[in-house]
Specification:
TIM Barrel, globular, alpha/beta, two-stranded antiparallel sheet, single chain, 13 helices, about 300 residues, six-stranded parallel beta sheet, 10 strands
Length: about 300
């Protein structure tokens, strides 16, 4: 029968003190993860509970799968092409903690956005209402008619040229203007939502953070890239470094750079998992996120 030995004792038996096996950068990453706050959008989400075997996202109200952007990484486009996009309506349950408008398509395209916003406020008065938008259609006039608690505006580039390359839409100035509108309204929690795409936008991330902060944005939600099969060629053509895109270390290093400029946060369900990892595992782990099509796990109630 073999004798089990602690790894520290094994290291010493080999003439190596355990602390030598540690890694300074790994310790810094671990400390960074422990110090991070959960994104405001993720607060109240089932994904933060690691004891939940099948967590689902916050409820959402889907207005339309249509979008005026054609982003090279977009899961919503994939869902539309595969006939998997949800029909308009409310996907969730009674008494939700929060509702997102919306997770597919661009909600501000819909002429029903103001009507639906008011309906949700009346039907779910205790719920936090989150707007997820690319921001390109937001105007002062429209903003005055909307009533949200949190607004997430997607921006993945720090220049007009790079924005056009990623979104296939010449709307960079309009998105920056939306950040300015929302950032100046301190009655709402404002978030810039950015996808980590090394080889494409890793150099832009700290610049986006600095820009957003200068416009009064409260928070950056930095998210890792999920690679959908239909987007692989587009991402490859744009220069994505697939290996770095799967590295947790590279993702966290990007977040650390952004943190110099703004209150950066990372996806709550990921943060909950990363906090359980020891420094060396966190340093070397990969996040292999490949999917064919996104799936809505919530029932349509309205």
């Amino acid at each position: 029968m073999g004798i089990k030995m602690r790894w520290e004792d094994f290291a010493r038996s080999m003439g190596v003190e355990p602390q030598i096996l540690e890694n300074k950068e790994a310790r810094l990453l671990k400390q960074f993860v422990m110090d991070l706050k959960f994104p405001t959008h993720c607060q109240g989400c089932q994904g933060l509970d690691l004891n939940n075997p099948n967590p689902v996202h916050h409820p959402s109200y889907e207005l339309t799968p249509a979008c005026n952007h054609d982003c090279i990484f977009c899961y919503s486009n994939v869902a539309v092409k595969l006939g998997k996009a949800p029909k308009p309506g409310y996907y969730g349950w009674e008494n939700p903690y929060a509702i997102t408008v919306s997770q597919y398509g661009e909600p501000l395209i819909s002429p029903r956005i103001v009507e639906v916003n008011r309906m949700l406020r009346e039907k779910f008065p205790n719920a936090r209402l989150d707007l997820q938008t690319n921001g390109s259609l937001l105007t002062e006039e429209l903003w005055a008619k909307l009533d949200f608690d949190l607004v997430m505006i997607s921006l993945d580039a720090a220049s007009r040229e790079k924005h056009l390359k990623i979104t296939n839409a010449d709307t960079f100035e309009a998105v920056v203007n939306a950040l300015r509108i929302v950032g100046s309204d301190k009655s709402v929690r404002s978030v810039v939502r950015t996808i980590f795409m090394p080889g494409i936008n890793d150099e832009d991330i700290p610049k986006i953070a600095e820009l957003a902060a200068s416009l009064g944005i409260d928070e950056m939600m930095l998210q890792p890239l999920t690679i959908h099969e239909l987007n692989v060629e587009r991402l490859k053509k744009a220069g994505l470094d697939f290996e770095r895109a799967e590295s947790i270390r590279e993702f966290l290093k990007a977040a650390m750079e952004a943190k110099k400029h703004i209150d950066v946060r990372i996806s709550g369900c990921q943060l909950a998992i990363y906090r359980t990892m020891d420094p060396l595992t966190l340093f070397s782990a990969k996040r292999v996120a490949r999917e064919v099509a996104p799936v809505v796990k919530r029932e349509r109630l309205l």
